[in-house]
Amino acid sequence: MCFESEKVVMFVNAGGEGSTEANCTMSFMADSFFQGGDAFQTGEHIVESGDHSLIYQSARLGNFCYRFNNMLPGDYYVDLHFVEIINTYGPKRMRVFNVFMQDEKASQLVELHYLDYFVKSILSDFDIFSIVGANKPLQLIDSRVSVYDARTRTRTRTRTPKPTPGHATCPPSVSVKDDGLIIIRFEGVNGSPLVSGICIRRAPKFSALPVKREHLVCKNCAAEIEVTSAQHKVMQMKSTAKYEKKIQELSAQCQRKSDECYQAWMSLTAANEQLEKVRMELDNKLFQTYSLDQTVDKQAENLRNISSKYECDKKFWAVAINNLQEKIKVMKEEHSQLLREAHECADSIPDLNKMVFAVQSLVSQCEDLKVKYNEEHAKRRKLYNLVQEAKAKDGELGILTGGSTKKNFKFDRVYTPKDDQVDVFADASPLVISVLDGYNVCIFAYGQTGTGKTFTMEGIEQNRGVNYRTLEELFRVSKERSETFSYDISVSVLEVYNEQIRDLLGASPTSKKQWRLAKTDVQGDRLKEAQNINRSLSALGDVISALATKSSHIPYRNSKLTHLLQDSLGGDSKTLMFVQISPSEHDLSETLSSLNFATRARGVELCPAKKQIDTSELQKLKMMLDKARQECRTKDESL
């Protein structure tokens, strides 16, 4: 890219960041000399990018210019690096633009007010994709100057040779005077201009040529005539003006030819588009013809299938009619046989009436037995409830509240340390019968932490508690009644934790122990857990108090616990509560609180327990009875 004999002044990475590549001493400057345009970057691989592939992965896009100030006077080369990294799929002429740069001669004419502006066109109607395609580098080579004269409005222009991909020779040169300024402007013709890198290099200095005297040879006498430099310069200017005029004429002619070529190309493009349109219409007509042929073939095939099916159906119905005639003949014979049998049955009706009367008598007796059985069963449940209530033993418990002061409490039963799990379950076992008889039953333990609630309800594997013994008794009694009754038993294990109901059979539960807030030093999540436990127990106390005072409103919905136990605490349910207390004097306040709560609970009088009948089962029995009656009526009509 750069020649060793030429010193690189700066290399700007357009649209990118400054950097230094490891395998080269070249340093790239950040993009900071622009006016206008937008930066664009890509991660695509740029093929044939040489040692400096980094600069071709970014670009400045739009109509913009670069101004390089404070340049030292002298001659410079400017290299321009391009790559198409946006319109990678074309087509051609999607991005066509011009590049302009100031000229030394034009700059002097501007100072003399001979030109409106001082630029030279180094690239005209430039299309990167048309030359090298996409993702391939392209460098500017061998560009010349175009000068516009404001006085005569004539233009002297030389054609710019095509840039060569991956090669940079004879770059455009520019002379910088005392103003120290280089301006490069990019202007779009179709689409937005794009550049990836700008390299400015010092032009090499050449030694002065030796002064030579000029001689002209006379065409008549062949004598040499010495001419002064001024005369020679005038002659050169005349010759230059002659050639410039010739060049101008050729340029204008070339421009006209270019315009004619462009018009011809546009005409060819229009003709190709028209031809493509005609070809597409022809393709559409061919496709429509092909579709019509396929449709006709399908319809012909359907017609053949329908004809074949008609013949098959005709044969089938002929056979079916013959079979139907045979069946009619057989049915007539069977009808005659039924008439004979009906006459025989009519003769035996008196005996049949006697049998029907006997069956109806047996059915009536069976209904009477069912009514009597239900009455006896209801009396048995009532007597069982009375026996269960009579079994409650009055127990008295005395608590020393301080000194010789003693406070007495009365309950249905008071257990001592000598009583074991069997004695405790003996008072709870009758409730199992009530469950099987259709009542809602609630058994729970209440008391201070560490007083044995878990042991009472669950126990250990060698000495089971109330829960396990209740389930064992439930299955034992249901098995004994299996010949008379059929039971559907389902079990669920739920936990109320932080006002959330958890299904402990659905996931592995985490053991949680309950803390009263006044007796523990808890913070954070444990504090929240303790507060929810106290809130649930407080709501349970409110429900018990409301039931004890027979309030018109029972606050079951104040907590998840009381809402869950609503069907088992009030109304027609049966409730058994075990109160656990601590013998330690340190827990006296908690013990008194538990006993006072138990006293209020003992004072609750629930309504007489009623059997909970499954309405779905009752509906099923009614449907079976209606079906049986309908069958009886049908048989009576047949008889």
In short:
Helices cover 44% and strands 19% of the residues. It is α+β, with helices and mostly antiparallel strands and 639 residues long.
Description:
The chain is an alpha+beta fold and 639 residues long. The chain has 13 helices and 25 strands. The chain has helices spanning 104-111, 128-132, 229-347, 349-390, 421-428, 430-436, 453-457, 466-480, 524-548, 560-564, 566-569, 588-602, 615-638, and strands at 8-13, 19-20, 27-28, 34-35, 38-41, 58-61, 64-68, 74-82, 96-101, 120-126, 138-139, 147-148, 155-156, 173-176, 182-190, 194-195, 197-202, 214-217, 224-227, 395-402, 405-411, 441-447, 494-497, 500-503, 574-580. Strands 1, 8, 11, 14 and 17 form a five-stranded antiparallel beta sheet that branches. It has a five-stranded antiparallel beta sheet with strand order 4-7-15-9-10, with no helix packed on it. A three-stranded antiparallel beta sheet has the order 5-6-16, with no helix packed on it. Strand 20 (395-402) and strand 21 (405-411) form a beta hairpin. Helix 6 (430-436) crosses helix 8 (466-480). The longest helix has 119 residues, at 229-347.
Entry keywords:
639 residues; disordered N terminus; 5-stranded antiparallel beta sheet; alpha+beta; 25 strands
Helix content: 40-55%
% residues in beta strands:
15-25%
Counting H and I runs of at least 4 residues, what is the number of helices?
A: 13
Mean pLDDT figure: 78
Structural class of the secondary elements? alpha+beta
